[in-house]
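Need a sequence for this fold. Nothing fancy.
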């Protein structure tokens, strides 16, 4: 199964962002992962529209945006207008996530749900037909560099089983390292948000070699 490699741009300093985007693009990553945080849904703030525009200007690859905000339906038209191709929302933050997913698809974008570690898959099953992507948080959202929570393996396996009739992609966000990627790829996960543990804090700084290594796992 071909992996979807999605570097998390929140890990990069703004002054070096263009250089990193160009090098990651050339190395063959699949999707650039952008985090928007409002300081309410999670206790942190992150990316501005200006930063999203900078990424968009420097790559033709897909951009996904992870909306860690209260009432994300208010913002989907805005982020869509800035060139985001995949829009992820948290059902925990939206009183009517079904309507928001439908709005995303009406805008011609791919729709995704993100589940926090404590949110059960059973709560979103009725929305499976609307999903292009399901992202499973395997750390508590809001901060970089956390370790994968191993008790979530069972939830990941459940998601792989349940997506069969619908065909949505499953993406893992949080604590992804070589061992996690190897283990979860073996059970059918294709997508990974790449952070410090497997990409940005490696001794090896050549993105071509790092992407080649991840493709081989």
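Here you go.
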């Amino acid at each position: 199964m071909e992996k979807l490699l999605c570097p998390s741009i929140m890990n990069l300093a703004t002054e070096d962002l263009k250089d990193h985007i160009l090098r990651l693009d050339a190395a063959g990553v699949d999707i650039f992962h952008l985090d928007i945080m409002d300081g309410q849904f999670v206790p942190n703030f992150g990316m501005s529209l200006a930063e999203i525009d900078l990424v968009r200007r420097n790559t033709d690859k897909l951009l996904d945006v992870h909306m860690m905000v209260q009432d994300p339906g208010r913002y989907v038209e805005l982020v869509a207008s800035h060139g985001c191709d995949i829009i992820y929302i948290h059902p925990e933050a939206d009183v009517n996530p079904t309507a928001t997913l439908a709005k995303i698809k009406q805008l011609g974008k791919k729709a995704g749900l993100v589940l926090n570690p404590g949110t059960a898959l059973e709560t979103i099953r009725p929305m499976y037909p609307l999903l292009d992507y399901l992202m499973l948080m395997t750390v508590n959202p809001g901060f970089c560099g956390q370790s994968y929570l191993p008790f979530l393996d069972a939830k990941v396996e459940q998601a792989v089983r349940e997506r069969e009739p619908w065909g949505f992609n499953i993406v893992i966000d949080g604590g992804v390292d070589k061992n996690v990627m190897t283990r979860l790829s073996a059970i059918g996960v294709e997508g990974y948000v790449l952070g410090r543990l497997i990409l940005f804090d490696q001794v090896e700084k050549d993105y071509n070699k790092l992407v080649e290594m991840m493709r081989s796992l």
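For context: Strands lie at 4-7, 31-38, 45-46, 62-68, 86-89, 110-115, 133-137, 169-173, 191-194.
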